[in-house]
Amino acid sequence: MKKNRALIITLTSSLLIGCGQTTVNSINDVKEDSQTTEDIVNKEEQTDIYEDSTDGKNLDDVYLQYKDILFTFMESGILPMDDRDIEAPAEEMNTVLKYSSFAVADIDNDDIDELIVYFDDACMAGMVAVIYDYLDGQAKYKFMEFPNLSIYENGTIEAGWSHNQGYAGAFWPYNLYYYNSDSDEYIEVGSVDAYDKDLYECNKEVLDSSGSSFPAEADIDGNGFVYYIYENGLEDYQKIAPVDDDVYQDWLNQYTDGLDKISLDFYRITNDTVERLGDKAYFESLKKSGSDLYVAPYY
């Protein structure tokens, strides 16, 4: 098993960025604008929210450091990572901020929220999901993948592939990362692709002639799907024997514990949303009011 840095979907060292311009207020401007009586009261109220932790930890510093990451991103287009940073040119930030979003949630059950950023420049090759965690008193980079994440209640992550160009049809292929709570890290355990019989029926003549017929003998339950589980990267892509649902579900459940996926609410990256980061009531109000700043739940 490999750690998450060994991603199956290799991201290019230079992201392809779309076009557009924007003017983002400096961090100093935001701080000056926020010094109204109302905002001071809001910050006092937020302090109570930040300090609400079962471990008695002060979450104020957690959210302040997450704010720094997002404000720096708005200022410079940079998202920090361990080995290299994601960077968007200033002249392209209008497009980047238009489509990018963030969520804050405790996805690893340590009673401290993580920051999930979806970097989206409207160009498939430049889309990245980055997760930050608060470790040893610092907000640190923890995980990167394509921004199509489904997170289970035990922290395990399904990262959907950027493309579905095989035979999977209605099934979306993904890479699976098991969250090891003892080491507090994500471990890549495999990838899953599928063959959808409906896709085969629509292209039967072509697929039969190319030797890619639907493997009906493996579809024991007859539901029209078989699965390919890759545990050695994609070296054997479409070369291994498919398995039916029972085998696939047994394999998946050993990493998900049979738990459900959680719902993550994402919000646009703006001065207001970043400044109010950690204020759960504020973000809930955006969601309930149908604000344009509320994106949608990702599963």
Short overview:
The chain has 299 residues and is an alpha+beta fold.
Describe the protein's architecture and organization.
With 299 residues, this protein is α+β, with helices and mostly antiparallel strands. It has two domains: 1-147 and 262-299, no CATH class; 153-260, no CATH class. 28% of the residues lie in helices and 25% in strands. The chain is built from nine helices and 14 strands. Strands 1, 8, 9, 10, 11 and 12 form a six-stranded antiparallel beta sheet that branches. A hairpin with a 5-residue loop joins strand 8 and strand 9. Helix 2 packs across helix 3 (59-76). The longest helix has 18 residues, at 59-76. It starts with a strand and ends with a strand.
Helix and strand arrangement:
Elements: E1 2-3, H1 27-33, H2 37-50, H3 59-76, E2 78-79, E3 86-87, H4 93-99, E4 101-105, E5 114-119, E6 128-135, E7 138-145, E8 149-151, E9 157-160, E10 174-180, E11 185-196, H5 197-202, H6 204-209, E12 225-230, H7 245-256, E13 264-268, H8 271-275, H9 280-289, E14 294-298
Antiparallel strand pairs: 1-11, 2-3, 4-5, 4-13, 5-6, 6-7, 8-9, 9-10, 10-11, 11-12, 13-14
Give a count of the beta strands, DSSP E runs of length 2 or more. 14
Number of domains: 2
Instruction: From the alpha carbons, calculate the radius of gyration and give it in angstroms.
Output: 22 Å
Write down the secondary-structure element order.
EHHHEEHEEEEEEEEHHEHEHHE
Major β-sheet profile: 6 strands, antiparallel
How would you state the average pLDDT, rounded?
A: 84
- The global form is elongated
Helix coverage percent: 25-40%
Structural class: alpha+beta
Strand % is 25-35%
Distance between the termini: 25 Å
* Unreliable segments of 5+ consecutive residues: 1-56
Count of DSSP-assigned helices: 9
